[in-house]
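Protocol step 4 of 6: structure prediction from sequence.
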Amino acid sequence: MNSIFIYIFLGISLAAPIGPVKTVLLNTGIKSGFFHAWFFSFGALVTDVMYMFMIYFGIGQFIDSPLLKTILWSFGCFVLMYTGIENLLTLKNIETNLTSGKRVRLRNSILSGFFMSLLNPLTILFWLGIYGSILAKTVGILTGYQIVINSIAILVGIMFVDLLMSILSSGARKLFSNRLLKIVSGFSSLSMIGFGIYFGIQAFHALF
């Protein structure tokens, strides 16, 4: 049981830093509310599980290939730049009233989270570096059943952080003024653009 809690805490620690996916999650909660942010995080979690399976079954070398990384750097740059610029252009549409604004289907939020995480090279580097090293250290020590339990514990930690961020971002809609919401959303949008530029630079260096 102690090891399970250690892996849950590991998941919390790894999910806490604000990266491109978490930035979009917070922005989604501010703009569309709790359920959209939560469903967005669920879509991102599906990608996490996918990469975990790929690494667990030994095909991590494929997703670590230079060609695939270059493609993901490029697509990640495009997606984040597009999302960040679009959010900046729609800042005036942010409303504190939960019943107002454009209605977005929850399945769109799930798909957005899935593709945002799938096209995020940092997700691959994260799972290859952290989860890959965990598997390398536990091979021959833990059984397959124990590895699965510990992997689920990591996901539980990530889900806890995502749930907390969804609650905080949606709560901001009720507590903050329109002006403050626009400032926060504007900063998160600029952060997306910043990550997009970083991904673009990495893609350029990989190609040239």
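Step 5 (inspection) to follow. DSSP finds nine helices and no strands in the chain.
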